Amino acid sequence: MILLDTAYVSPLLAETLIEKKVKVLDIQQQLILNHKSQAEQNLEKVFQQEDLIIMNSEEAVQILNEYYAESYLTKTVNLFKNKFAFRKRLAESYPDFFFLETTSVELGQLDLSSLPYPIIFKPTVGYSSVGVYRVENAQEFQRIIEMMEWSENDSKDVLGSDSFIIESYIEGQEFAIDLFFDENNEPVVLNLFARMFKDEKDMSDRIYYTSKQVLQNYLAPITEYLQGLGEFFNLRKMPLHIELRMDDEGTIVPIEVNPLRFAGAGTTELGSFAYGVNSYDYFFEQKKPDWADLINAMDNRIYSFTCAEFEGEIKVDDEFVIHHELLQQQFHHILEYRHIPHGQGATFAVIFFSSESLAQNDHILTLDFMEFVEKKEYLHVNN
């Protein structure tokens, strides 16, 4: 079963759900769809009977807490979503890793000069890169705190949570992995994406990429690490999107674990372009990719994903002209360009593309996507 946020459903996901006849729970309507026993809408009973559960949005977690709160599955989901609780559980494995939880009130009472900079400051519960800062020193942290106190957006999205985690900055190359654990609690990796950032301060989700070289160099050690994670948490038949970093010595430290979902905004589908793996199909069928054959069949191109987003305060009733054709000209080889309707969030386009080198990705990282957005201004005249 999939807990489906219908605000955005990618074409590939929609096709897969229809082809596989997957039971769908529309989380907005709280209604079971695409299932012959639609008359049965007792969600507590439905969850108890389901063996495989996945979602395509963080919004679905509240449905689990309402109808399936006492299950091991939901308790594990909540553990992963609480970044402080997650760090606390892993503390013995990373004794030198600094982290603490604080509130908006306690921030003003912290001795900022005593923190082991550089640090990461972020909401205890959150998603994507919303409200995440890399902080270099006490003076910079003080400016961030003051900015958040005066910023309406941050007050709503970040300070409104009233709980934050301060933790060590994790050095190394960052990766995003889509996987599930099978019935024997073995990790089944479906995607392995490297991430690129414009600079050390960039915390955005702008570029994910993969290639034959990425898989050859990192698939084996990351899979071995995930094996231990499964043993530690008991993740049988659970799909996950995991972000982690690996340093030059091969030490792996998890950044966060996003339970019951794959990479959002269609990002997970980059694997279907690069090596032919439809992550949803593999999960519902509980299939394992033959990575040796898949890697051997790959070309030497780099396969990448980016999402073009609005910046600043965007209202649902704002009207824009988006120059998609000009944005498309920034890419050498587009695999798929998806227009995202206004009102579905900050993203207005999702782009899958390939290139001969990382130079194309470097260029996309420097783009100001708002240069391709023109806001309509109307003059209202009183009669």
Would you write up a description of this structure?
By secondary structure, this protein is of the alpha+beta class. The chain has three domains: 69 residues, no CATH class; 75 residues, Dna Ligase, domain 1; 203 residues, D-amino Acid Aminotransferase, Chain A, domain 1, CATH 3.30.470.20. It is 31% helix and 25% strand. The protein is built from 14 helices and 18 strands. The strands form four sheets. The chain has an eight-stranded antiparallel sheet with strand order 13-12-9-10-11-14-17-16, with helices on both faces. Strand 12 and strand 13 form a beta hairpin. It is globular, with a radius of gyration of 21 Å. The C terminus is likely disordered.
